[in-house]
Amino acid sequence: MLDRLEKERTLTDGEFLEILTTTEYDGELGERADAVRRKVYGDRVFIRGLVEITNYCRNNCYYCGIRRGNRLCTRYRLTEEQIFSCCDEGYGLGFRTFVLQGGEDPRFTDDRICAIVSGIKDRHPDCAVTLSLGEKSRESYGMYRQAGADRYLLRHETADEEHYRKLHPAQLSLENRKRCLFDLKELGYQVGSGFMVGSPYQTSECLVEDLRFLQKLDPDMIGIGPFIHHSQTPFADRPDGSFELTLKLISVLRLMFPHALIPATTALGTINPRGREMGLQRGANVVMPNLSPTGVRELYQLYDNKICTGEESAQCLECLRNRVAAAGYRIVQDIGNVKR
Fold first, then answer.
1. Taking the alpha carbons of 50, 325, 155, 182 in that order, is the dihedral positive or negative?
2. Do the domain assignments include residue 338?
3. What's the predicted TM-score (pTM) here?
4. What is Dmax (Cα atoms) for the chain?
5. Total domain count for the chain?
6. Fewer CB near the last or first residue (10 Å), C or N of the chain?
7. Is residue 74 part of a domain?
8. What is the torsional sign of CA 182, 184, 187, 192?
9. CA–CA dist 272, 307 (Å, integer)
């Protein structure tokens, strides 16, 4: 079965379910995934400088710690100068991609986002700018692209309609989320999507549907991580997602999408002290240290207990470099475009 997955990049729904619900293939799956990522990308690990520009959000998603309804969240917005300063510092540390992430904050208008993107590009023309700012109109995405944005990250979270409705308020729709992703592709972005593993009400069949949707989208970047609860959400008492299943899915995704840029996420490192290294060994090839000002890192809490100091920070890049090397890989100073 794994031979066919590697060569044909797909299986039947029943075969996917067998891989996801048994441990029979786990060891070989990880070995094959690592071999494929080494064939395409060698031992290189690309670093992205993450700048969390705002934790205001107009949405009220049931799983998210910065949801509008969380009245205990201390809110902040970075100024343009703060964002430029983060990128300047990151450039000096060796970063060549900056990821601007934030909630859907109406104060960050299209004109403001465009000015920030073009400002970063003017200062660092040899760098890529990635945006992760939620659902926008096709026109807005076009403006950001014209301003110089190269990539856009928008996790679909779940491709199952019934499951989507259980995770989001009625004003949000899976149809619109998918529309955004295909608009981004048509506009020429390198597009990233992905999903939570172990979110409330998720079934193995939901995960197969996620894999099928990604086959249709064929993204350049795929970000997955375990669901981790937040104490100020309706899912505060829900169990966290499975670390082992997340690793398994990283390997499956690497075999399905050999070219993809797959991060070893902060959520992996939060749920297991060696989570990111183990993610790299299962097929991931990106890490995203935090470039945000130290005073706000603890405020961007999508889930409880997020790691945000020490080796997670961009300033301790050498620490991270050593950990990545100990896992068998090397961090490179590179823009890290997808290899198609």
1. positive
2. no
3. 0.96
4. 53
5. 1
6. C
7. yes
8. negative
9. 11
> Which residues in the chain land under pLDDT 70?
308-315
Rounded CA-CA distance 209/16 in Å is 10
Displacement of CA 86 from its chain's centroid (Å): 20
Sheet of 190-197: strand order equals 49-54, 97-102, 128-132, 151-153, 190-197, 221-226
Q: What pLDDT, in 10s, does the model give residues 245-271?
A: 999 999 999 999 999 999 999 899 899
Q: Which domain holds residue 302?
A: 2-332
Q: How many CA atoms lie within 13 A of 101 on its CB side?
A: 22
The per-residue DSSP string of 283-319 comes to T--EE--B-S-TTTGGG--SSTT---SGGGBGGGHHH
Give the C-alpha separation, 337 to 340, whole Å.
9
CATH number at residue 178: 3.20.20.70
Residue 339 lies in a domain: no
User: Roughly what angle, to the nearest 10 degrees, separates helices 110-123 and 138-147?
Assistant: 20
In this structure, is residue 337 part of a structural domain? no
Contact predicate 300/292, CB 8 Å: yes
Digit-coded pLDDT (tens) for 159-186: 999 999 999 999 999 999 999 999 999 9
